[in-house]
Amino acid sequence: MAEKKVALITGANRGIGLETAKQLGEQGVIVVAAARTLKAAEETAAKLKALGVEAYPLQLEVTSASDRVATVKYLEEKFGRLDILINNAGVNGKEGLVPMVSQVEDYELERIFSTNLFAVVALTRELLPLLKKSPAGRIVNLSSILGSLALHADPSSPIYHFKSFAYDASKSALNAYTVHLAWELRDTPIKVNSAHPGWVKTDMGTDAAPMEIPDGAKTSVALALLGTDGPSGRFIHLGQELPW
Hints:
- The chain is of the alpha/beta class.
- The protein has one domain: Rossmann fold.
- 41% of the residues lie in helices and 14% in strands.
- It has an eight-stranded mixed beta sheet, with helices on both faces.
- Strand 1 (6-9), helix 1 and strand 2 form a beta-alpha-beta unit.
- InterPro entries: CBR1-like (IPR045313), NAD(P)-bd_dom_sf (IPR036291), SDR_fam (IPR002347).
């Protein structure tokens, strides 16, 4: 019997992260459910275990260097490798959509980029040695269609008037990271992709969103379980490629 895959999901305690953990667990994947606090992580793991998922809690505030070091140590000692990394944790603008880029303050850019880009780059870099020990490592970066420069620049695009510079730019930069990391790892079994989950009914997406949470997790789950012939360095939503 093949060894079970091990997945680390950041921000796994609610919304798309929790649903992704549930769906991967249902496919027989061991889930390490990471959350900002140990309490939240433990509550999440308990929910998943009640559903029959093999889940383990982990405190991981992604912007914390000490938490990242502890994460690597934990995974190394417990599993000796990592098969799937889902960089799901993210933040949006405190004021929601702020269309006027001239009004975005420095602290807001720094706050959003710290979680949505810098922490992802740091955590992924620190976990790469463990991912390289997997026969088929998968990295999924949770992006957004709002990171698409092509669609933002197109007046006929459905997102043309949905401008929130700090958030959008953090996702554009995350997409650039996906492209660069996929290129760096092109001669390895590791695949790296950006996922647009869709506009989903979560705390971040609000009840105005058209998609339900189970559908919002489908893209992450599919990219986490890609076969050897699957894409790398792509921007995907429900199996369809999006323009950068």
